[in-house]
Amino acid sequence: MAIKSIKDKKRLPIEIDLTGPDGNAFVLLGKAKNLAKQLYPKDLGFEKQIIEEMTSGDYDNLLDVFDKYFGSFVTLYR
User: pTM of whole model > 0.85?
Assistant: First the structure.
């Protein structure tokens, strides 16, 4: 059994419907930026690295990279 904070209950799990407005590439980039700041606050360059990797290809690449870094925290629905 895991003991979790009540604050986590309100934030997790994060679910994103890719068929709606949250599926827009710019919205996903913004979410990735915010998540990177929250999850890796001490590594300032990591946020920029993730965004560069997400924008280095097409939309499917963006989703793959998002899932690579945030897949354990965020569920994406198509």
Answer: no
